[in-house]
Batch of 3 targets.
Target 1
Amino acid sequence: MAKMWAGRFAKETDSKVDDFNTSLPFDCRLYEEDIQGSLAHVAMLEKQGIVTTKDAQDIQEGLKSILKDINEGKLPFGQGFEDIHMFVEETLTNRIGDAGKRLHTGRSRNDQVALDMRLYVKKEIKEIQALILDFMKSLTAMARVNLETYIPGYTHLQRAQPITIAHWMMAYANMLKRDIRRLQNTYDLMNECPLGCGALATTTYPIDRNYTSDLLGFTQPVDNSLDGVSDRDYCIELCSDLSILMMHLSRFSEEIIAWCSLEFHYIELDDAFSTGSSIMPQKKNPDICELIRGKTGRVYGSLMTSLTMLKGLPLAYNKDMQEDKEAVFDAIDTVKQCLVVVKPMFDTMTILKENCEYACLHGYINATDCADYLTRKGLPFRDAYHVVGSLVGYCNKNHMALNELSLEQFKEFNEAFDKDVYQALDLKTCVEMRKVLGGPSQNEVVRQIQMIERFINERCS
Ligand code: ARG
C-alpha cells in the first residue's frame, strides 16, 4: 500500500520496517477516541471556514459510519496501516473520496495521538475509580457487620494488640480512598487539550483551539504546543497511581493468603473463588490473591517503561513515544482485571469469627493493656512495662494466659494489682478502651466507616 508520505521517497519501505513500525495491533483500541477527536476537529475547521460545510458533513458522516462499522464488527483493522490514525483516515478517504483528504488540515498525527491518549486515559481513570469505589462499598458493608469480630493486630507478623476485622478493613478503605484521590489529581492535571499543537509548532491556519477543547470536554487547551505534543507525564503519573493501588491490593492479598492458611484460619474463601491442586486432593488455593500479588510487578514494569521511555527524549515528538501505549494499556487492563475479581472474592468469603477470637486469647496481646492498668494504678509506665514483662515470662514458662493467673499470683509481681485486673484484660475491654481517634473501639470504627461512606456517596452523586 502506498504510504501517505510516499512522495518524498524513491523506494517502498521494507516490509520488516512496516512490521516493526506499526502500532495498529495495539493502538486500534483508540478508534473511538480517534474518531471523536476528528469529529471535533472537522467541526472546528468548518466553523473557521477552513473547510466547506459540504466537506465537513461528508467527513462527519463518513467518520460516523466507520465508528458504527467497527462497533458492529464489520470493519476489521486488517494489515498494512501504520497506526489507528492512518487506518481511520485512509478508510475515510476510500469511503468519501477527496473530502476525506481535507480532514488532516491544520493537524498532525503528533497532536492527534496526544489527544487520543488523553481522551482514553481520562475515560479509563473514571472506570477504574468506579471499580475502586465498588470495592470500598464492600469493605464498609463487611466492616459494619464485623464491629465485634476481634483479631490480633500484628507488627513484625507477631501478635501485638487486639483490634477488630472492621478496623482492619477500614485501613484498606482509607488506602483505596487515597488511590481514588491520586487518580483524580492525575485527571485534573492532564485535563488539557493538545489538539491544535500540530506537529510541534501549531499551524498557519486560523484554528480555534478553545472551541475543540470545549467540544472534547477539557478544561482548556495545553498552553504550549511543544509541551502538548511531547510530554507524557500523565502516563507516568497514571502508572504510578496504578502501581500504588496494586501495592495496596497486593498487601491485602498477602493477608488474605495468610488468613486462609490453616496456620491462621481466620477466613475461608468461597469455592467459586478458589482453586484446587492437580495432585493434592485436600488443597484449596487462594490463586486470585496470588495472581494479584504477582501482577503487581507488571504494573511496576509499566511505570519503569514509561519513565525510561521519556527520560532522554529531545523535544518534541519522537517515535519512542509510541511505546507509551502498551505500557499504559497493560497497566490499565491488569488493574481492572484485579479489581473486577477481588470484590466478589471478598464479598463471598466467610470470616471464621471463633478462630479469630481464639487467636486473640494467645500471644499476650493484652500485655500492653496490663501495663496501662498498672499505670492507671499509679506506677510509672516504664516500671509497669517491666512488671508485665516478668509476668509474660512467667506465664510463658507455665503455658498460661495473663487472665489465667490468680489474684495472688498477680500480687506477687506487684501489689497494685486488684480484682478489677480481669476486667481490664478482657478482650472486649482492651479494644473498647482504645477509643482515641483512629482506634479500634466500636464507636470509633463506626465513625471511620461513616467517613468512608460519605466519600463514596459524594463520589457517586
Ligand atoms: N503511532 C504513533 C504513536 O503512537 C502515532 C504518531 C506518529 N507520528 C509520527 N510523526 N510518526 O506515537
Target 2
Amino acid sequence: MRIDVVTLFPEMFQGFLEGSLLGAAQKAGLLDIRLSNIRDFATGVHRQVDDRPYGGGPGMLLMPGPVVDCVESVLADAPASQPAHVAMLTPAGRPLTQQVAEELASRERLVLLCGRYEGFDQRVCDTLAADQISIGDYVLSGGEVAAMVVIDAVARLLPGVLGDEQSAVDDSFSGTDRLVEGPQYTRPREFRGLRVPDVLLSGDHGQIAAWRHKQALAATSRRTSPTTGQPTQTS
Ligand code: 4H4
C-alpha cells in the first residue's frame, strides 16, 4: 500500500515513520509512505499558504491553491491503474472506527490531507470531493496527529505488518460482532494477591473461548456511549 501525506509539517512524521511497526513495514516493502509539503506549492514571494477568512472571524484558513495543487501533483505521481482514495482529516469528517480503518486498509493507495489552523477553504472540499475523516470530536492544532492515528490503525491491518503473535484479527472492535476486548492476563499467575482466572490455566480452549466471549460482551456493555453517556453495545 502507498500512503501519501499532504501536510505543512512533514518533519512531524520523521520519528513516527521510523518507529518499529511502520519502519519495519516500509523496509519489508509492505508500506510506502511519502510526505509532500503544501508549502512547496505556494506561489509568490512569501509562499503564502493561509489567509484570513472572508466574512471575518478568528484564525486563518488554508488557501485552496497550494493545497489542491499539492494533492493533484501527488495523484499524478502514480499510474492511472493505481486509483487513490483521498481523505481530508477534519473534525467535520466521519468518525474513524475499526470498520473505517479496515475499509481504508483495503485500498491500494491513500492520500491523507492534513488540515491546519481553522481548517480548509471550502473549495478544497468541493474541488477534491474527498472523503473526510475525524479521529474524534475535538479540535487539534493540526491534522498531522490525526493522520498518524489513521496510518497506525490502517498499517497494523495490512497482511504481514503484525507478526502472527500480534494478529489484529482478535482486536477490540474487530470481527463481525465488534466487541471490546475483555480482560487479559500474562505472567505471573498471581500479582499482589490478584490471581489469573483458573479457566485461562485450564487448557480447555472451548471453555477459554466461551469465557473470553462472555467477558467481551460484559466489557462492551460497560462502555458508555460518547453521546448518550449510557452503556453501549458496539454493532
Ligand atoms: C480542521 C481545525 C477544521 C478546525 C481543523 C476545523 C481533526 C480531528 C482536527 C486542524 C484542523 C484540525 N482532524 N480529526 N479532530 N474549522 N484537525 O481537529 O472545522 O473547526 O481529524 S473547523
Target 3
Amino acid sequence: MAINIVTIIGARPQIIKAAAISRAISRVFSGQINEIIVHTGQHYDDNMSAVFFEELSIPRPQYNLNVGSASHGLQTARMIEGIEDILLKEKPDFLVLYGDTNSTLAGAIAASKIHVPVVHIEAGLRSFNKSMPEEINRVMCDHCSSLLFSPTLTGYQNLIREGFNPANKAPFSADNPKIVHCGDVMYDNSLHFSVLAEKRSNILNTHGLEENEFILSTIHRDNNTDQPDRLNAIFSALMRISSMSRKKIVLPLHPRTAKLLESNLSQALYEKLKQHKEFILIPPVSFLDMIRLEQQASMVITDSGGVQKEAYFFRKPCIILRPETEWKEIVETGAAIIGDASETLIINAYEQLMQKRTLSYPPIFGDGKAAEFICSEMLANATAKTR
Ligand code: UD1
Ligand code: UDP
C-alpha cells in the first residue's frame, strides 16, 4: 500500500533540497510514496523560488500559504495555522521537514500537536549558538521528530548527546524516535546537477568570467546584514582580497542583503563598492548557475550553510563568514576557515588558504544516495505503523 507524505518547503535552500527526495520518489518509489508539496511562501521572489521548480524538475506545490515576510513570530504563526489545516485535511503518514528555517519550525509545531509523525532531514546539526534563529528552529524540530536523518556523523553524535537513543526499536514515534546517519541530500543534488550545470549554464559568459579568475561570495545571515560593523568589516575584507588576488568578486545578492547594503555600509564604502570594477553584484542566480560558479571559482567566501558545503563538494577552499559552523568537519579538514566578520580573520584565512598547496576533501557527506535511503526508511517505518 502506498504511503502519503506532506513536504514543507519555504526558503530557497529547502526548495533545492526537496528536489532530491522528489527525484528519488519519481525514479524509484513512484506508486509507493505519494508526495504533497506545501510551499509556505517564506521566499516568494521569482529568483528565490519559482526559478528552481522547472530547472530542478520539482513538482509544483499543491498548496501555497503565501505567508511572505514578517517578524519571526507572525511569520511562523501564519505558517502553523496554514499547515495545520492541510494536515487535518490530507492526513499524511509523515510530514517531511528540511533544515532549520521558520518554515521548518512551523511544520514541526503544527504536526506534532496533532500527532502527525515528523521526518526531519538535516537533523542533529548544531552551532551551539542560540542567538541564531536557526539554532532554535533545528533543536525544536529535532525534539518533535519521529525519524531523524543526520547528514554527518557529528550531527548524529549531537543527537545522542541530547538524549536520543540509537538503540530505539520500531514502532518509532516522537517519544521513541529513530536517529540515522545517512549522508546529505545536497550531496546527491550536487552530483546530479553538476553535469547539467556544465551543459546548460551560461553564467560565465554572461559576466565574462574565466575559470579560477574569480572568487564567489554570498552574504545573507541577519547578524551580518543587520549589523553595520560586521557588514563593513566583511566588505572591507572582500575589497582587500580583490586587490591582493587581482581576481573578480562575484556576489549574487540575497534580497535581504541587497536591501541593506546602502543603509548599513558606510557611505564611503558603499560608493567605493558601486564603482569597483572587480565587484560583480548580481541578483540571486538559479541553482545551475550557482553550481557552475562554484565549480569554476578559485575560492568561496560565504555565510551560507549550503554554499560552504557546496564549496567542499566542488573542492574549493572556503572562508566562512560566521563565528562558528554546524558543518564542523569541513573546518577540521582544513578546506575551510572561520573568518567570522573580522577583517583581520578573513584576510588571515585568505592568506592561509592561498599558502596551502593541497587541500584534502575526504568523503564526509555520504554516497550520493541519501534521498533514496530516506524514502526507503519512510516506507519501512510507515508500514511498521509509526503512529
Ligand atoms: C531564511 C532562513 C535562513 C536561511 C535563508 C536562506 C529563517 C529564520 N531564516 O533567511 O535560515 O539561511 O532563509 O536563504 O527562516 N526577501 C525578499 N524576497 C524573498 C524573500 C525574502 O525580498 O523572496 C527579503 C525580505 O525583506 C525579508 C528578508 O529578505 O524580510 C528576509 O527573509 P526571511 O525569509 O525572513 O529570512 P532569510 O534571511 O531569507
Ligand atoms: N543558491 C542559489 N542561488 C544563489 C545563492 C544560493 O541557487 O544566488 C543556492 C546554493 O547553491 C545552495 C542554497 O541556495 O544550494 C543555499 O541557500 P542559502 O545560502 O540561501 O541558505 P542556507 O543554506 O544558508 O540556509
